[in-house]
Structure formats: C-alpha cells, structure tokens
Amino acid sequence: MSELVTGEAVALELRPAKLPSRALAVLLDLAVAVVAYIVVTIGVVAATASLDEAAQAALSVALFVLLLVGGPIAVETLSHGRSLGKLACGLRVVRDDGGPIRFRHALVRGLIGVIEILLTLGVVAVVASLVSARGRRLGDVFAGTLVVRERVPAARTGFVPPPPPWLAGRFSALDLSAVPDGLWLSVRQYLTRMQTLDPQVGWSVAQRLATEVAARTGAPVPPGVPPAAYLAAVLHERQTREARRAFAAAPSAGDRPSVAPSGTPAAAPQQAAQYRPEPSEPYPPVSQDPPAGDRSGTRPSTGFVPPA
Predict the structure, then answer these.
(1) 37 to each of 114, 122, 222, how far by Cα in Å?
(2) Which of 263, 307, 256 is nearest to 284 (CA)?
(3) What is the pLDDT, as a whole number, of residue 25?
(4) CA distance 207 to 200
(5) Helix (H, G, I), strand (E, B), or coil: what is residue 5?
C-alpha cells in the first residue's frame, strides 16, 4: 500500500502497480502502436509512391513520432491515464495526490518514455522501477505521477464487528431514544469500513462519533474504553433492543378468544334465559322491582299485564 495525501489533507491508500503488470501493459500498448504504424505506413507509402526518397523518409519519421509518441500521449490524456494495455491489466496512471492526470503529465511521460523505453529497449525503465520505492520510472518521477492498480480484492463490507466481551451488557440502562437515525447510520458505516481507513483518520472519526452519541444519550464515554469499542457496544445494544421488540412473544392460542362458526365469540357471557310460561300459567309473573334502566324507583306497579 502507498499512502498519498490529497490537497484536502486526506490520506489515500493506493496499491502501486508491480513491474510485471506494468511491463505487460507497455508491451500491449507497443504492440497496438506498432501494428497501427505498420498499417498506416504501408498505406501512406502506397499513396505517395511518386515522391522521392527524402520525402518518404521525412514522412516515415513524422508517422513514427505521430503514432508511437503522440498516440500514447493522446490516449492517456483522453482516457485519464488508462491506455489499452493498462485497461487490460487493470492499471491507471494518477497524480501524486491521487487525482486524474492532465495533458502535461501525459506529455512528460510520453517524451521521457521514448528514451527509457523505445531507445533503450526498456532497460532504463526497468532499473528505475526496481530502485523506486513505489515502482515509478523516470517519466513518472518527472511528471509527478504514479501507476496504481484498480482491480483490488473486494473487502468484506456490511459486517458490523461485535463489541468486546468485557463490554457486553454494560450499556443496557443507557437511554438511546434521543439518538437520531442519521447518527446511527454514520456509526454503522464507520464500523463496517474502519478496517480500510487510515489509523489516524479512523481514530478521529471514532472520537467524533462517540462524542456525538454520548451527548445524545446524556452519559459520557466510560474512561479507558476506546471510541470504536464504545460505538460497537452501543450499536449492539440498540440492535438487541430492536430485536426484542420485533420478536416479542405473540399471544398464545389459549389466550385468544375462540370464535363460534356463526362469527360470534363462544366465550361471550350467556344471556339470561327468557321466561316461558308453563301451559298451566296464563300469564307470566310480574316483577315488583323497577327495570334496571329506570332509576326513579317511584312508579308503583299496577299489576296489569297485557295478553301475550
């Protein structure tokens, strides 16, 4: 890994390309350029057969400079450091601060590459790459560029590391209701990516998030607890509470009122049985008590009941 510092003082960790992959990319670029040079030269010679030898020689030199020197410069400028060979090998040319290259960077790399790659058959470029700590050739040194790998093994993301065992259950009484969802999302993103961050940058981010969470909960971070461990423990406590609420025990089948086939609850209180007069009784007896809805209680009963 190579640490680059951007203009905003952000440390970037990039993987410099190794010599075998860079050599393969250069060979692919040279093969394409040579094939294009041969095809164009044959076409131009056939079209300018009437010219003298001096004109044809000058035209051949111009084609050489245009295709083998100007071609790679134009391709790297337009593709921001990804020629055909580098694209096939998963490489890219970037500036020292990690940004995309411009025309001047590609121009310096191309002009010096004529000397250290074409004229010396790549010997100077190989020696310079072996000596350099980041595998840079002379063109990269003078242009202020670096060839890095774009295809790197994908890191495991989305996995929140568990808190240390000695912090399990320590924040069970903490009030987490005032912590907003946006802050929880920031804490989760930090915990899933803290292994890929620069140690100093990761420590500062953890301190800032721990301070915000402690301010929302009203309880300071316990002394001696690292910020990352504190965040992991608090997030684990929140997830535990959410799981308890989501998977709370539902009422059992015995607690639910059974429903009769007609749709009425079978456990409903039975209604008072209606009085049915016996065949020997002409009329039902008359109650002397006032009905439940009648609260006056002053109205005497007349003893008269209309026929059924």
Answers:
(1) 15, 19, 70
(2) 307
(3) 93
(4) 11
(5) strand
Per DSSP, the three-state class of 147 is: strand
CA nearest to 160, candidates 244, 240, 232: 232
Q: How far apart are CA 305 and CA 303, in angstroms?
A: 7
Handedness of CA 157, 195, 207, 12 (dihedral sign): negative
β-bridge partners, 5: 11
Task: Answer for the pair 28, 85: CB distance below 8 angstroms, yes or no.
Answer: yes
What φ, ψ does residue 95 adopt, rounded to 5°? -75, 175
- Given a cut of 50, is residue 268 above it in pLDDT? no
Residue showing tokens 């595998």 = 135
> What does the mean pLDDT of the chain come to?
76
Nearest-angstrom CA–CA distance, 240 and 238: 5
Cα distance between residue 86 and residue 81, in whole Å: 8
Q: How many residues does the chain have?
A: 308
Per-residue pLDDT tens digits for 89-123: 989 999 887 788 999 999 999 999 988 888 888 89
The first and second tokens of residue 158, run together, are 């989305």
Write out the two tokens for 132.
Answer: 């350099």
Q: CA geometry: angle at 167 spanning 205 and 246, to 5°?
A: 90
Contact 95, 105 (CB under 8 A): yes
